[in-house]
Automatic annotation (TrEMBL):
Ranges of residues in domain Thioredoxin: 17-197
Protein keywords: Copper
CDD domains registered for this protein in UniProt: SCO
Organism: Winogradskyella pulchriflava
Name recorded for this polypeptide: SCO family protein
Matching Pfam families: SCO1-SenC (PF02630)
Lineage: superkingdom: Bacteria
Family: Belongs to the SCO1/2 family.
Amino acid sequence: MKIAQLLIVLFLVFGCKSNSEELPILSYKINAEGEKEVYSIIYSDFTNQDGIEVNSTNIKDKIVIANFFFTRCPSICPPMRVKLIDIATEFINEDDVLLISHTIDPKNDTVEVLKNYSETTEIPTSKWWFVRSNEEHTKHLAEQLMTNFRPNEDGTDFYHSSYATLIDKQQNIRGFYNILIEEEVKRLTEAIKTLID
């Protein structure tokens, strides 16, 4: 009888344990001594489509899905946008889930342009921020998120990733997901639910 009770206690302790440990912390670098150094994502000097400054303070305690785009993008951005609208809609009632899309074309993507682009998604601006900064700050953030971008040779497009980064409430990276692959979108959705729990 005592063994059965012990098994029940162990099941309750370990069975109810948060699954967030199953998502590794991926925001780290290897230092000169070969040791892993975990870092938190730092936001500064970004502005969203409502003209509000975006920094690490106002994303504190948020689960963030971050990606890079530009409003004139003729290639991967439109299908990415459709998938991100689906994700935003699924978590529309979760106050601690926030999408942040960073423009890589601040010359053309003014606050007004981002506002108009945002309105066509029909997602509240409290759930999905479209943000801009100068090229230096945007590239620095891309480095933190382990990605990059560059202009196409003819200037009509940018080379950039179709991946979204999942960031937890402590502003650590917990996963990378290719938004153009349905199975990856499902994995991202499940990972967000894990962090919520």
